[in-house]
Amino acid sequence: MGAANGGVRHDGDEGVLLFAFTCGYITLPMGFFLEGEPGKVKVPACSYLIDHPKGLALFDTGFSPRFTDMADGLGKIVDMPKGESIADRLTELNVDPARIDWIINSHLHLDHAGGNALIPNATVIVQSGEWDFGLGGEDGAYHAVDFDTGQPVKQVSGEHDLFGDGSVVLFPTPGHTPGHQSVRVQTGGGEAILCGDCCNMRQSLDEMHLPDHAWSLDACRNSLELLSKLRDKGARIFYGHDPEFWSGVPQSEALQL
Ligand SMILES: [Zn+2]
Predict the structure, then answer these.
(1) Separation of CA 10 and ligand 1 centre (Å)
(2) What's the domain count of the chain?
(3) Mean pLDDT value of segment 56-71
(4) pTM: predicted TM-score of the whole model, two decimal places
(5) Mean pLDDT, to the nearest integer, of 38-57?
(6) 188 C-alpha vs ligand 1 centroid, how far in Å?
(7) How many Cβ atoms sit within 10 Å of the Cβ of residue 220?
């Protein structure tokens, strides 16, 4: 195959390769992630590159570089270091952002879709309902400037097998937002579950500890229970905003699950 096939694939690589990145940080009350917990916490916003022999997909895109050097408003809680946008992360891996085919957005909040504008030739895949809810104005964490950036949008309902071989399967995990989705990625070394804001922290799953607010806390609980079953079967969960977990995730090499 070689690099000409796209991305970071080397001769001898088989199947799906998975890479993980942090793309900015936000400081929020701990209760936002784990109901009743005191204090504040600085958490990473995360993005993943899924390198499949048939194409390149991102799962989420982190924060927009518009927050770099922003001192007012959201700039007080968002830290977007220069050089850490998803476009910068891809370029470090010698992946041209223009070669990404798909952006799978777990949902369209500003810390998950903020880099969409940097990926010009991708088709955005969201669960049906997420797009309209994002534009509806009920939830202040949606900023159309971040997610309504002109690429084609494919809305899916329920499970969606992206490459038709079962290796990258999107599935609904509603609760945090109505159209939240996660993805199962089957790599040579095992299965990863990229779960966005369905499961913020390892503690969320270990203790079935819900956040202090959500679009539907009942749906959150059901989605966490689904993730728990997948974890029991051996899947590796990538906790969406867990700073301790992310401090141990390598960011410049294919993940070994
Ligand atoms: Zn969110």
Answers:
(1) 34
(2) 1
(3) 96
(4) 0.95
(5) 97
(6) 30
(7) 24
